[in-house]
Amino acid sequence: SQQGEEDPQALSIQEGENATMNCSYKTSINNLQWYRQNSGRGLVHLILIRSNEREKHSGRLRVTLDTSKKSSSLLITASRAADTASYFCATDVLGAQKLVFGQGTRLTINP
Amino acid sequence: SQTIHQWPATLVQPVGSPLSLECTVEGTSNPNLYWYRQAAGRGLQLLFYSVGIGQISSEVPQNLSASRPQDRQFILSSKKLLLSDSGFYLCAWSHARDPYTFGSGTRLTVV
């Protein structure tokens, strides 16, 4: 079964608004990563947050991690039409050598 | 710089035919290698991963197999394709706890 569960499954907002996506997971982790996928393409790494970190920023991206609740959120500020894509969280599971991906959030930014 | 090549980009194969998808990595040595499959509109399912030549871990019992004949080459195979093998296949590499770098994917349609 998938480790990560993203919420919502789909999100549609206006350009300029902020987009927030959530991810929950089940087991202990080394880190949690967020990836982006444009339709029909490979995934591109966005940001990695380690299990001992609570918040991380990269440009317009802000990621939080709450290991007590086993959850993470990805915030994209001042969204642009080019942000339209699917976003996946992936957990680097403690004791394993693999990433386990969630089902993803399909984000649509309307111009 | 490191690059990952995956081919072919699209493939249409009849049921019962064999399959061979190849993935090669350049610019690094001893990478961890991964094969994922993605059903339409869904998350990524880990199929196989390899931490070294000849070392293959299978995540899901199925009609597929993987091999790593060289350090930077990862091959996904099947002797007889099933309709359910259709999907988007993604190869990726990483080192230790680093983020993954994905190939551009192969869209396989079994008819």
Blueprint of the fold:
The complex is a heterodimer of chains A (111) and B (111).
Chain A: E1 5-7, E2 10-14, E3 19-24, E4 29-37, E5 43-50, E6 55-58, E7 61-66, E8 71-76, E9 85-93, E10 99-101, E11 105-110
Parallel strand pairs in A: 2-11
Antiparallel strand pairs in A: 1-3, 3-8, 4-5, 4-9, 6-7, 7-8, 9-10, 9-11
Chain B: E1 3-7, E2 10-13, E3 19-26, E4 32-38, E5 44-52, E6 55-58, E7 65-70, E8 73-78, E9 87-94, E10 101-102, E11 106-110
Parallel strand pairs in B: 2-11
Antiparallel strand pairs in B: 1-3, 3-8, 4-5, 4-9, 5-6, 7-8, 9-10, 9-11
What this model shows, in words?
The complex is a heterodimer of chains A (111) and B (111). In chain A, 0% of the residues lie in helices and 59% in strands. Chain A is built from no helices and eleven strands. Chain A has strands at residues 5-7, 10-14, 19-24, 29-37, 43-50, 55-58, 61-66, 71-76, 85-93, 99-101, 105-110. Chain A is an all-beta fold and 111 residues long. In chain A, 36% of the residues are buried. Chain B is mainly beta. Chain B has a single domain, classed as Immunoglobulin-like (Sandwich), CATH 2.60.40.10. Chain B has no helices and eleven strands. Chain B has strands at 3-7, 10-13, 19-26, 32-38, 44-52, 55-58, 65-70, 73-78, 87-94, 101-102, 106-110. In chain B, strands 2, 4, 5, 6, 9, 10 and 11 form a seven-stranded mixed beta sheet that branches. In chain B, strand 4 (32-38) and strand 5 (44-52) form a beta hairpin. The A-B interface holds A 2, 4, 30-31, 33, 35, 40-45, 48, 88, 90, 92, 97-104, 106 and B 6, 32, 34, 36, 41-46, 49, 51, 59, 88, 90, 92, 94, 97, 99-105, 107.
